[in-house]
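Subject: design request, 737 residues
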């Protein structure tokens, strides 16, 4: 009979209750404690109305409590639907629309659900012996292209995947998990650890130093699953040191696996296991044994036990579509008819089988670039670029071209401490190994490549930035992202920065009015925590981060100098950017910037209280509480109550931005004197009274600043009455009337 995760957890709690099950920071939780937490979670979820067959969405970071809730859902016979972390508001809405959950569990629910102590679940035993075909987990596809789907995985599929892996790998003493529960690789690690009854060590996804220290510690985990970018950073952190002795297997998957990376890892003793898999197969399908890594670094190995693959429609060189089968096959997609476990999965990827029976993935079909009828594999170009000693990572995508249909363009990230060469040197490097038509037309330098929380490259975000699309996001170090929107396509660049509790989308009418009949391009940016800009760790921010984001966007776009238009808090960022990077700013227009550091003592004290109250509200009630507290403070106690329900819901989604803005640090009032660009400080004649004194003081401190009041306008006017605001901005920037 197929085993289940809650059933196996109960067995371990009975047979090895005091042994470590999860290591989470400084905590070590035993199997008995974890089973007790899962029982409490199950009872709590049933009290909230969850029944067998219901879907429960988990918006949770990896933690002991998150695992307990996941097990608690399964104890009921309900379906776990983990939501990847770090989604933008739009992406989250799409994901929840696909999942249609009965209940959404977030971080604020964890203490209540798992803190009830030992609980006897009166229906738990029935869930341990459920039909193996019953849906257990819905995994969202990565969403790197198109609309994501929900892949339905049964108890049979998840158990079969874990069994296949454990029948291939050396015995594990523990698993490290620097991957989230929101994608199939992280779930696979959890199922394997529970199947074997070995400890699971939870680690941050973007901290190679912590991972290295954990693997190097005596008695640490022997197995870990990584994506290529994580392995690159791990090897960089290790330097010339060889792999720790206790490490037995480093699974590598989640996309294209560069042969040079496998050779680098294996060359210093890391037992790297290259894999090929997909969500529709519950994780892996093939694996390359570590002892063959140097022999065949460009392959993904042979099928796992019970799995099979075939190459359909193979041409003269044996290349065709990769088709896979196995007991871990998913039940299909949410909202579609179920699929039998015996049905093959047509992956859409192209590959061949080498003479030793190993899979060679030739091309991910959805990533292919066709230039004038010539096919270009992005992976081949990326491998050549990453062979350059100064390049840590590269991503190559298609950009539309009137002559060739498509041309390849590249985004590159420097190795720590390295300086990237100029474009001509990069072209020479590429031409030494590639045909001319494969050489990227442009090279864009980024601080980080956009990735999913599982570390998978988001080609859609790269394509948006490099391929001329009108909206997208720019990845930033640490996992955050900056959303952007483009209006018009002129030669003069204007960067538009929005206020607190708003987004670039809400300034769309203002952007169009500024750009109308002018030779400008308006680049509207969302700040971290606002709009479509993710903030993985909601917190007050230093203004230097916002400034760095603006400069990084200019760099990514190849913009030497731009005019900055900032509304409310965006005006603060615009002024600080002009002060810190005078060579990059042509002009600044700031509408009612709440630059509290130059205010009178009473107003400054008010700003400090606002920061403290907003932080407390966020800690107590999350983004919605922060948004309400912030707006009541700046617009009056009754302002929140007067809002329509739809508007209130929109503002609640921007509460992380309120937290980040209210507690802003790092303002440099003395630095305002370094601004060399023309500056205009605007206020509305009908605005709250404290904006005008701040604007007056800013105009006094900034060399040659002009000060204007727009009659009849108020603080929200850039959103509610954009036409007169745009007219003033156009006049100041000397755009055609």
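Subject: RE: design request

Done. Sequence follows.
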């Amino acid at each position: 009979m197929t085993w289940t995760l809650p059933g196996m957890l109960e067995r371990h709690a009975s047979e090895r209750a005091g042994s470590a099950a999860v290591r989470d920071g400084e905590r070590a939780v035993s199997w008995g404690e974890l089973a007790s937490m899962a029982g409490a979670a199950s009872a709590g979820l049933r009290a909230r109305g969850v029944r067998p067959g219901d879907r429960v969405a988990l918006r949770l970071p990896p933690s002991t409590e998150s695992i307990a809730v996941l097990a608690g859902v399964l104890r009921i016979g309900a379906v776990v639907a983990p939501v990847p972390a770090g989604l933008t508001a739009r992406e989250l809405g799409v994901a929840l629309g696909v999942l249609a959950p009965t209940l959404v569990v977030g971080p604020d629910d964890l203490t209540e659900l798992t803190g009830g102590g030992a609980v006897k679940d009166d229906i738990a035993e029935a869930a341990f012996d459920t039909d193996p075909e019953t849906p257990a987990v819905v995994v969202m596809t990565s969403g790197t292209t198109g609309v994501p789907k929900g892949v339905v995985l049964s108890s049979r599929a998840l158990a079969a995947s874990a069994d296949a892996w454990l029948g291939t790998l050396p015995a594990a003493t523990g698993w490290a998990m620097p991957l989230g529960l929101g994608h199939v690789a992280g779930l696979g690690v959890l199922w394997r650890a529970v199947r074997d009854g070995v400890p699971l060590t939870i680690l941050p996804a973007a901290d190679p130093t912590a991972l290295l220290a954990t693997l190097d510690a005596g008695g640490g985990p022997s197995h870990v699953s990584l994506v290529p970018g994580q392995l690159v950073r791990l090897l960089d952190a290790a330097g010339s040191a060889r792999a720790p002795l206790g490490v037995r297997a480093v699974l590598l998957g989640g996309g294209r696996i560069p042969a040079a990376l496998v050779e680098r890892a294996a060359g210093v003793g890391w037992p790297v296991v290259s894999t090929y898999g997909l969500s529709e197969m519950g994780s892996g399908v093939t694996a390359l044994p570590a002892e063959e890594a140097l022999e065949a670094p460009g392959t993904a190995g042979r099928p796992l036990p019970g799995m099979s693959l075939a190459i359909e429609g193979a041409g003269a060189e044996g290349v065709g579509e990769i088709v896979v089968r196995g007991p871990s096959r998913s039940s299909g997609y949410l909202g579609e008819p179920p699929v039998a476990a015996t049905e093959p999965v047509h992956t859409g990827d192209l590959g061949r089988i080498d003479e030793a029976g190993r899979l060679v993935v030739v091309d991910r079909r959805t990533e292919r670039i066709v230039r004038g009828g010539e096919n270009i594999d992005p992976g081949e170009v990326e491998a050549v670029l990453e062979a350059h000693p100064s390049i840590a990572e590269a991503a190559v995508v298609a950009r539309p071209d009137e002559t060739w249909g498509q041309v390849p363009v590249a985004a590159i990230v420097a190795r720590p401490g390295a300086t990237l060469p100029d474009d001509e040197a990069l072209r020479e490097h590429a031409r030494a190994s590639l045909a001319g038509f494969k050489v990227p037309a442009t090279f864009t330098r980024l601080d980080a490549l956009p990735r999913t929380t599982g570390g998978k490259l988001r080609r859609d975000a790269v394509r948006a930035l490099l391929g001329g699309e009108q909206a997208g996001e720019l990845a930033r170090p640490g996992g955050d992202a900056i959303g952007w929107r483009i209006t018009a396509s002129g030669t003069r660049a204007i960067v538009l920065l929005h206020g607190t509790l708003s987004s670039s989308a809400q300034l769309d009418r203002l952007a169009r009015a500024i750009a109308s009949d002018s030779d400008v391009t308006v680049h509207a940016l969302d700040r971290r925590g606002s709009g479509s800009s993710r903030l993985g760790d909601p917190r007050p921010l230093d203004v230097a981060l916002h400034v760095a984001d603006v400069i990084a966007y200019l760099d990514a776009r190849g913009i030497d100098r731009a005019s900055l238009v900032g509304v409310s808090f965006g005006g603060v960022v615009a002024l600080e950017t002009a002060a810190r990077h005078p060579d990059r700013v042509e002009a600044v227009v700031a509408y009612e910037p709440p630059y509290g550091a130059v205010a009178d003592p009473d107003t400054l004290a008010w700003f400090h209280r606002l920061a403290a109250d907003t932080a407390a509200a966020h800690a107590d009630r999350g983004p919605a509480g922060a948004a309400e507290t912030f707006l009541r403070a700046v617009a009056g106690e009754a302002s929140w109550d007067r809002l329509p329900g739809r508007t209130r819901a929109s503002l609640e989604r921007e509460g992380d931005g309120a937290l980040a803005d209210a507690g802003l640090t790092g303002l440099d009032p003395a630095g305002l004197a370094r601004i060399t660009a023309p500056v205009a400080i605007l206020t509305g004649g009908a605005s709250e009274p404290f904006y005008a004194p701040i604007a007056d003081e800013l105009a006094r401190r900034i060399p040659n600043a002009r000060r204007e009041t727009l009659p009849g306008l108020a603080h929200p006017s850039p959103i509610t009455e954009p036409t007169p605001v745009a007219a003033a901005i156009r006049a100041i920037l000397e755009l055609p009337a």
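DSSP finds 23 helices and 31 strands in the chain.
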